[in-house]
Known about the structure:
Pfam families: ABC_tran, oligo_HPY. The protein is of the alpha/beta class. The chain has 12 helices and 12 strands. The strands form 2 sheets. An 8-stranded mixed sheet has the order 6-7-8-3-9-10-12-11, with helices on both faces. Helix 7 links the parallel strand 7 and strand 8.
Amino acid sequence: SKVILQVNELKKHFNLGKGRNLKAVDDVSFDVYQGETFGLVGESGCGKSTIGRTIMGLYNRTDGQVSYGGKDVHELDEQEKFKFYRNMQMIFQDPYASLNPRSTVGEIISEPMIVHDLYPDKKKRMERVYQLLEEVGLNRDHATRYPHEFSGGQRQRIGVARALALDPDFIIADEPISALDVSVQAQVVNLLERLQEEKGLTYLFIAHDLSMVRHISDRIGVMYLGHLVELTDSDSLYENPKHPYTQALLSAIPIPDPDVEESRERVILEGELPSPIDPPSGCVFRTRCPMAMEACATTKPVWQAVDDNHFVACHLYNDDIKDKTPIKHKPK
Ligand code: SF4
Ligand code: MG
């Protein structure tokens, strides 16, 4: 299928002054196909939200490109930008913080339509609001109520209705379920999947762990400290993870089946997440990697294919690296 979004060697660094540079996103490349859900996963602070915001054009890039429908999103003229913001919408982690508490639900959902001069006739616009409320599993009576009158799950539905108001093609969902109760998470995921099917939406679905993304994502990219470390379809990622960081993330998810639990090798992460202001040399994961070898401190791992549509950045899979003895197991 067709590539709709291309992220190419994207860098987003924040200059903190005094020569300090926060490398939030460093050389990240991936494509998103039309109609798929691309999951982007990593611990908080790994740069995944920064990527979302840079794709949206809310941040300028430091280097590299983001193209949507073949156009560089950071080079759009005003008219193209306006159109781009109709096609691409965002859903946020905390629906409460992103909904104006003094506006009614009807006003919140109408706002993007007013900005974009869609449905200038108020009656038609309200009909559209009612329709959107029903599409997300709420009802028209909710239009006159305020965000605080709703539960977390309902508020996320309001956020989804607002994101749909302009009939977008692409939605960046930035941890849309992380703040919700587990029982409500599945409902919101089901809603997003149903809407995707009905409207042919493409999703970039950002999450901080791998427990919920498997079911919604077609492909998943795993990030660590500003870098993409592994990318493949979701089944391969869960069944055959290659990068030691992915293996660690997966072993943190409890498995209900005790037989599987027994046979599974646990990868426990050591130490703390390093600062993106002063990331480790070579492989950024090396300070926590149980497999780290000498080359990991000196050489940045290359992004390579290990299988069809399975990519990883790790020296373990690089035949040019001869000595793969883990430092930990070397005689002192
Ligand atoms: Fe671990 Fe080295 Fe692979 Fe990095 S390159 S993940 S430190 S083995
Ligand atoms: Mg899907």
